[in-house]
Amino acid sequence: MTRTNLTRTAAIPAVCVIMALLTACGDQKEPATSSEPSVTSEDVKKEAKDAAETTMTYLEAKKREYQGQVEARLEEYDKKLDELKATAMTLGEEAQANINQKMEVLQKKMASAYQKLDDLKIAADNAWDGSKSHMDSALEEVENAYQETKKEAMNASEESLAYVDQQKDQYQKRIEAQLKEYDQKLDELEAKTGTVEQKARTLLEQQIQSLREKQRAAHMEWEKLSASSGKAWEDIKSGMNSAMDDLARAYHDAASHFE
């Protein structure tokens, strides 16, 4: 092998090495630079704090909303209890006693519910679920006691109204019969006026005129009685009795001329 060929043969590996180095350098990339800021431990703590505060605000709002609903329901039960008391006052002694017993139970249930409401108010916002379950149970007991008391009051009231209607019907029929009797007597009395002397006749006619006025007044009271309902007729009853008494006295005065 000639010297020239040896030189060429030795140069080939050197050229390959240089080319490989240049290729490697060309393929090497510069490290990428991130545009996002790095997250620090302080950032993590702040996010956790904000999330906790948001959760507490939500729990507080839910608690206050529920608390307001409970207060409104208990206030409504207070009104209903007053209505039951008013109904009991219109009933007989036995019915009142039965309803009063049930109202005592209802009042105890309501007192317990109000105590549960106080417990709810002081419960921590993040731990009030336990107080809520107790509150729900207390409200359910109040509702059950109220419905039972209401049913007792309604039944007693219906029985009382039936008795009142029966009493009114009997009284009304008795007064109606008396009025018809007086109407007939008054017609008979008026027909007799021609049989008395002139001097007595003038006085009798005046008395009959007064008697006619008493008769009309009694009939008007009877109309009021007929139109009344429930226990309202008892208020009219006194006026009816008074009108009948006046009619009876006026008839007796006029009829005395023929005794």
Q: What would your notes on this structure say?
A:
By secondary structure, this protein is an all-alpha fold. The chain has two domains: 51-160; 163-258, no CATH class. It contains six helices and no strands. The chain has helices at 3-27, 41-89, 93-122, 129-191, 198-227, 232-255. The longest helix has 63 residues, at 129-191. The chain is rod-shaped and about 130 Å long. The chain starts with a helix and ends with a helix. Mean pLDDT is 80; it is low at 1-32.
- The shape, in one word, is rod-shaped
Which stretches are poorly predicted, pLDDT < 50 over at least 5 residues?
A: 1-32
How many discrete domains? 2
Helix content percent band: over 70%
Order of helices and strands: HHHHHH
The radius of gyration is: 51 Å
Mean pLDDT, rounded to whole units?
Answer: 80
Structural class: mainly alpha
Distance between the amino and carboxyl termini: 187 Å
Strand % is: under 5%
Largest sheet: number of strands, sense, barrel closure: none
Number of helices: 6
Number of beta strands: 0
